[in-house]
Each structure stands twice: as structure tokens, then as C-alpha cells.
Design goal:
Elements lengths: L7 E6 L2 E6 L7 H7 L19 E7 L6 E7 L12 E3 L1 H4 L8 H8 L9 H14 L5 H7 L11 H8 L44 E5 L2 E5 L3 H11 L6 E4 L11 H10 L4 E4 L2
Parallel strand pairs: 1-5, 7-9, 8-9
Antiparallel strand pairs: 1-2, 3-4, 3-5, 6-7
Helix pairs in contact: 3-6
Amino acid sequence: MAAAVSTTLTFMVNGTQHQVSNPDPLMTLNEWLRSQRGLTGTKVMCGEGGCGCCVVMVTHPEPTNGGKLSYTVNSCLCPLCSVDGWTITTVEGLGGQKAGFHPIQRRLADFNGSQCGYCSPGMVVNMYGLLSKNPQPSQQEVENHFDGHICRCTGYRPILDAMKSFAGVSGSCIDIEDLNKHLCPVNGQVCNGSVTNGVNGVHHNDPPLRCSQNGVCWYRPTTLEQLHSLLEQHSTGLDRYKLVCGNTAADGPATVETCHQACQLDPTSFCLDVN
């Protein structure tokens, strides 16, 4: 006899059980939280898991050992149909003006880490997820845990200061405002220029690189002067250029087929490598 098939999801959100009958397979958890439950503290922006403003905490059974597994997810990428049996916590479930703020929320405010506030819920829930797994992380572990979160206002300094204040392990990492000083990983001092290797192994005295094929030119300047000169040359007329730094603006996985399609759709004539 064939097993009965369920068409209903059952899951918990902020301590309340919900049931959804015959859910739309294309609906995300983010869309359901915002449109069906009015939990708009969970934001949506990029829609591709790149900015972190949609992060929520989830807990579900661990099938390998019968225990529980808790972690944070990008709700904009999480299909609603996948949350059957889950326990979900949004920023509203951590605290608020009426019920009282969570210590992480208060700490972020105390450090002036919220300006427009759009990224704040994701930052708070992300830190909650880290502390749930590791109550005494190091400062480096805190910083690493936020590599998938984007802030458009405060410049990260007060946010990281607030979150690193929860670190329980001695030791620190390079301050965010010292990153541009090129501190030596060996002695922690400002680089004196004795080592000539640049970013990605490029030497500053190497000649710039120029490649051209299929109507698209790739330039790799090695100095700011060369970059400024190229921008002046190609910022007028019909030339179109693109600054490439990690190429995270590329749409979709970098396969031969998608790259070929991108070249056909993107009228870029010049790519400037600024890695």
C-alpha cells in the first residue's frame, strides 16, 4: 500500500506554529514571511544571497544523529517548501520595542552601528546564530562570520566593533581602518615596500596587460596613473567600460556558455582589471 502523501507544511516561526496547505514551490521563505505574516523586519534586496539583509535563524532535526541543527540562512534563497518541520527565528523573535530588545540589538545601537537600518536585522540575526553555536568566539571568527553581509551606510566600523565586543577569546585581528595600510602578516607593521609582490602576484613595475578578442579589450593597469589614463581614453564617445574587481557583478555561474551569453548581451567594450 502506497504511503500517504502530505500536501501541508508544518513549521514554527518565533514560537508560533504555522501550517501552509499546498504551498507554491516557487515561493521563498522570505516572500512568505513578509507577505503572509507581515514580518518585514526580514529584509530583501539582492535576491541572490549576496547581501545578508534577509538572514533568519533556522533549527531542524539532524538526520545523522537524531539531534538538532541550527544555523542562519538567506531566506531569499530558501524555498518555502523546504521548511517543513523547521523552527524559524526572525529578528522580531529576538526582541523589539514592546517586548524588550535583545542584547545584540542594544549593543548595535550603543555602538551607533545602525544608520538607515536596512542591514541591521540581518546583522543581528547573523550574530545571534554565531553565538548560539559558539558563545565565546574570537574577534577573527566574528569578522569572518560577517563576510556575506553588506552595509551601505556606516562603513562597517561600528558594526564590527559592536559584534566584536561579544568576543570571549583573547587576541584581536587587524582593525578595519588599518586594512589599507598593508600591514605585514609577519610583524604587523606597515609595509615598507621592500617586498615587490602586489595583489595577485602582480609587481608594480611589471608592464600593464592588454588582451583583445571578439571586440572586447582587457586592460590590467599596475598604477593609478595608468588607470586614470585609461578611464580618460574610454569614458567619452561610444566606448563602454567595466571595472572588474572579483567580477561579483557577473550574473550567474561562470560557465563557458554563460560567459558567451554575457558577452553577447553586455555591450562592454573595455574591461579594466583593478584587482
